[in-house]
Write a structure and sequence with these properties.
Blueprint lengths: L1 H20 L7 H19 L2 H16 L8 H12 L15
Helix pairs in contact: 1-2, 1-4, 2-3
C-alpha cells in the first residue's frame, strides 16, 4: 500500500510538470493545453476511482483548459487530499459484556 501511495505521488508530480511545461512554450502552449486537458482528465480518473476521482478529473480538465491556471498542481493536490487531508472515520469500539 505504501509503495502504491508514493507511486501515485510520483506520477502526479510528473503529470503536473507536463501540464506546467505547456505554459513555457509561447504561442503553441495554449493549443497544447487543449490536447493535454482530456488526457489529464483521463489519467486522473484512472489514478483515483469513485466520485472523488470523477470530480478531480473534471477539475483538472477545467484547470488545463483555462488560461494561466497551469501553475496549479492539481494531481499533487489530489494526492494530498487523498492521503494527508482526508479525514478517515475513526473505528468505533463497542464493548460487549456478558450477561451478569
Amino acid at each position: 500500500m505504501k509503495n502504491e501511495k508514493y507511486k501515485l505521488l510520483r506520477k502526479g508530480i510528473f503529470y503536473d510538470a507536463v501540464g506546467m511545461a505547456t505554459m513555457a512554450i509561447p504561442v503553441i502552449g495554449p493549443f497544447l493545453d487543449l490536447l493535454w486537458a482530456p488526457l489529464a482528465a483521463k489519467k486522473m480518473s484512472e489514478m483515483y476511482k469513485g466520485t472523488e476521482g470523477k470530480i478531480a478529473s473534471v477539475l483538472v480538465f477545467v484547470e488545463e483548459v483555462l488560461p494561466f491556471t497551469d501553475v496549479v498542481p492539481t494531481f499533487t493536490l489530489m494526492w494530498l487530499y487523498t492521503f494527508v487531508w482526508k479525514k478517515q472515520p475513526t473505528p468505533q469500539i463497542i464493548e460487549v459484556r456478558a450477561n451478569e
